[in-house]
Design brief:
Keywords: Hydrolase, Membrane, Mitochondrion, Mitochondrion inner membrane, Transit peptide, Transmembrane, Transmembrane helix. Its EC number is 3.4.21.105. Belongs to the peptidase S54 family. The chain is mainly α. The chain has a domain at about 95-135 and about 160-370: Rhomboid-like (Rhomboid-like fold, Up-down Bundle). The protein has helices at about 1-10, 25-35, 40-50, 70-75, 100-140, 150-160, 165-180, 190-195, 205-210, 220-240, 240-265, 275-290, 305-325, 330-350, 355-370; strands spanning about 295, 300-305.
């Protein structure tokens, strides 16, 4: 009885050393220490469990690029559900920024170059449009008018819009179209691949532009389009239609590149989408150009504040969100868009748009001279 008690106390506390299972040490230890009458079923089972203990091997799971970041984006209702979407982060994250950087520079240059040519063509056609307008007004005066003509009402509504509102109507229509595509279940993978920007995705460049027109949440799209519509008249009056389109498209790409840099630097990979970065550029440009303008919140129209103070508050909030890792918005894209808008109004207009003359001259010579007939020289 004394032997049995000692065995149960000593071995039961786990103080004895147990060699690996399958070795002869367990059998020799059992035979040497335990008398035959003590090798009962219960004690045998206990010894075998101690000798046969093995640490469970650690299960190695395949790495996913959204590991540790998917939860950060699941909390936001502004982006699609990407729990089952596998991304592939590069083992050298900084290298993933090379192609987006050159795409950003190249696209921005093409946007402003195209805007300069567009402005040239617009100015060239205005004289002809003026005479065509006079002829059209004369025909309308002698043509019998139709009552309740739907097309006439649409034309009347369109003509009553400001230049800025007519300019952003196409942008709003494109955003609504892409929003409808998100509602098609069979297009979900394609939409996530090309209409959300993520430095861990295999497609890096085209989503930087396409995601600017992409909204998954109706509230997100409605809020962005309302702000764009509200500031459209002011920004087009400041920049003009052509320059505004170049700034808006470039701002979408630049803000996404800033988001890429922040995600690579922090390791918080995840999809982003929305026109907020480009709209922040519009907002910052107007607030920088007209800092004393009065603004108000749509739900609280009784509280007004200056545009300069609003811009400072927005920059402070997005800076804090980027540093503290707030996960509801892409604060890096917001901040990048705002800083680009401030820079362009302060310096960019002089550095870029005022120096478009050489390109316009080249285009003018190409349009005026054209290809030489007969292939000969004068």
């Amino acid at each position: 009885m004394a032997w049995r008690g000692w065995a149960q106390r000593g071995w039961g506390c786990g103080q004895a050393w147990a060699p690996p299972a399958g070795s002869r040490g367990c059998e020799e230890l059992t035979a040497a220490l335990a008398p035959p009458r003590l090798l009962g079923r219960r004690f045998n089972f206990f010894i075998q469990q101690k000798c046969g203990f093995r640490k469970a091997p650690r299960k190695v799971e395949p790495r996913r690029s959204d590991t540790g970041t998917s939860e950060a984006y699941k909390r936001s209702a502004l982006i699609p559900h990407v729990e089952e979407t596998v991304f592939y982060p590069s083992p050298y994250p900084v290298r993933t920024l090379i192609k987006p950087f050159f795409f950003t520079v190249g696209f921005t240059g093409c946007a402003f170059g195209s805007a300069a040519i567009w402005q040239y063509e617009s100015l060239k056609s205005r004289v002809q449009s003026y005479f065509d307008g006079i002829k059209a007004d004369w025909l309308d005066s002698i043509r019998p008018q139709k009552e309740g003509d739907f097309r006439k009402e649409i034309n009347k509504w369109w003509n009553n819009l400001s230049d800025g509102q007519r300019t952003v109507t196409g942008i709003i229509a494109a955003n609504v179209f892409v929003f409808c595509l998100w509602r098609v279940p069979s297009l979900q993978r394609t939409m996530i691949r090309y209409f959300t920007s993520n430095p861990a995705s295999k497609v890096l460049c085209s989503p930087m532009l396409l995601s600017t027109f992409s909204h998954f949440s109706l509230f997100h799209m409605a809020a962005n389009m309302y702000v764009l519509w509200s500031f459209s008249s002011s920004i087009v009056n400041i920049l003009g239609q052509e320059q505004f389109m170049a700034v808006y498209l470039s701002a979408g790409v630049i803000s996404n590149f800033v988001s890429y840099v922040c995600k690579v630097a922090t390791g918080r990979y995840g999809p982003s989408l929305g026109a907020s970065g480009a709209i922040m550029t519009v907002l910052a440009a107007v607030c920088t150009k007209i800092p004393d303008g009065r603004l108000a919140i749509i739900f609280l129209p009784m509280f007004t504040f200056t545009a300069g103070n609003a811009l400072k508050a927005i920059i402070a909030m997005d800076t804090a969100g980027m540093i503290l890792g707030w996960k509801f918005f892409d604060h890096a894209a917001h901040l990048g868009g705002a800083l680009f808008g401030i820079w362009y109004i302060t310096y960019g207009h002089e550095l870029i748009w005022k120096n478009r003359e050489p390109l316009v001259k080249i285009w003018h010579e190409m349009r005026t001279n054209g290809p030489k007939k007969g292939g000969g020289s004068k």
